[in-house]
Target: phosphoacetylglucosamine mutase
Amino acid sequence: MHLEAVLKSSVRHAKPAGLTLQYGTAGFRTKAEHLDHVMYRMGLLAVLRSKKTKSVIGVMVTASHNPEEDNGVKLVDPMGEMLVQEWEVYATNLANAEEHELQTALTNIIKEETINMQDESCVVIGRDTRPSSENLSLAVIDGVTAFESRYQDYGLVSTPQLHYIVCCRNTDGRYGEPTVEGYYQKLSKAFNDLVKQSPNSEADKKSLSIDGANGIGALKIREMEQHLQPLLSLLLFNDGSKGKLNHACGADYVKVLQKAPEGIDMKPGERCCSFDGDADRIVYYYKDNEHRFHLLDGDKIATLISTFIKELLVKVDLTLNMGVVQTAYANGSSTRYLEEIMKVPVYCAKTGVKHLHHKAQEFDIGVYFEANGHGTVNFMILHFVNERAFCPKMYWIKMSFVVYVRFG
Ligand SMILES: CC(=O)N[C@H]1[C@@H](OP(=O)(O)O)O[C@H](CO)[C@@H](O)[C@@H]1O
Model:
């Protein structure tokens, strides 16, 4: 058992006595200076989760849309989902255990989950561009290596990229190549194929102005840009060269203030979008000829996507059950439109991707979006999973569709 090694290295990541933190909607989040011990311990927890699930687990160091001074951690489960809720209590107990209670907290998890400490484990680690993120990710690695686990540090990646990598690693590459380059190739191929299907693909060449929130999204979209040309050209602003992360920019700013971020001089008709600090949300917007600002938030994205998928289903004559999942923050008129005009069932879940995702899994096609721009489409008939037969029509719809899935 490696607990002795853990207790030894824990001293380098000692918890400030009396400090307690709550596991929030998407993990721990607070001022960066209070997080070193939490990161170390989440490294430990990720190893235990990896041994338990016999899969690769992800740890993303980010505080997403929070100010630059904050930081946080998101744990990624085997299929690229958020950490299963039953383990959140272990995360909280570990993060809040005083130094002398750490051994007991770890032993309890190992016993309760009947974890065989001899089992293999592997953790993949990513981080956003916050100045504190590099050291905090080293603390995660210290936790992982204290348990003598394998790991791979992917360095600077967006949250969706880390989720993607975890899923690829656990499906032997059938979902895609587990690299950032593999991610660009998969998404850009889907995008380019879809645009080429349009009868006017030449005339349909588009440009998009992107607010990178001065964060990781800016860095990564720069890398992805070459894969999208010539069908989509990008104009990047808030790329981190001048401004501060999430300051007067980013998806949250645009959504909350219903106005364009600083740093862009938007022309009427110009298509714009904003990421948040870890690029797992997106909102779109434009100005009309009267200079009125129009926002396409998660509600509108969900509506457009459901309409698009419904049309595809009719086209290929496929009867599948599709549902939309929103939260209580959704605009009531989007819900009414979906239910009454589109005739799509809409469900309300608690705030947090894990809740929406869970509900969306009840449908063959589950579209879920929070108004703030987190969301995706869940296809239950996954073409690479053996449990259900390969379905070419579904594959086609899915591949036509990947492009609409959030930047992640
Ligand atoms: C992955 C996840 O669950 N993210 C949460 C979290 O957003 P972040 O962008 O990850 O900070 O907080 C939001 C606000 O509470 C909530 O809407 C969202 O679902």
